[in-house]
Amino acid sequence: MSQSDWFVRCAAGLGGLPEDYLVIDLETTGLNPASPAVLPTQVGSCLVLGRQIAEAHAALVDWGKSPHVDPEQFYADVEKTCTKMRERGAAGIAVAQVQEFGRPPQQVLDEYRAKLVACLEMGMPVVGHNIVAYDLPILERIFPLTFGDQGRMVFDLNRVIDSGMLCLAWFAGCVPPTVDWARDDYYSVIKQRQFKRKWNLGHCVETFGLARKHAADLQNAHDALADCRMVHYLIEEFRDRAFAPAVPA
Questions:
Q1: Labelling 136: which of 90, 105, 129, 151 has CA 20 to 30 A away?
Q2: Is the pTM of this model over 0.85?
Q3: Could you tell me the fold of the domain covering 3-243?
């Protein structure tokens, strides 16, 4: 299958790439989404309407202001994560930033959850990079922690587009999704593939030449808003490759 055919079939299997969607991204204190110690320090979102970013927002979250979290442990985790990020060349989110600009999680997450609910109710998919395995499980865990059972939210993966999963499928040579496959089943198939190539967001953006195309500074990676913008670039690149006019022979 040619590269162009892969993207055409991918778009068809997804029921057509949407023109309106919500991109989300979390920056957190760790890598294990199931760990109670892993909490978001920053949430970001880009509302895309007609393929263009209509609204972009990010907020720092200070769990030291939550009655459910040990503030000393939280700030220690923030510091450790920031140090690791800076060792890798990223800016990282410092404790001082969280304490000065971060708001209580009840406020930030209430706004974030409301945005997710509103977009899903309007039929918009939620889009992100590796959100099936990472961001969404964290949100499903922390919403009840913050708001009780009434805040519980379970995401239907058939209404989720994971740019990371799609990039991994393309790198690994997986057959694109078909209209006969539920999207959550397709994600399960991809995750079962043994494939060692990098597929983090920065690598995918570089692979498709999007940093140069959009003058994106990859040193801003691991900033929730910057990452949302890069996911938007990826989805639109998939669309452009799927619907590019045929080159005359």
A1: 90
A2: yes
A3: Nucleotidyltransferase; domain 5 (3.30.420)
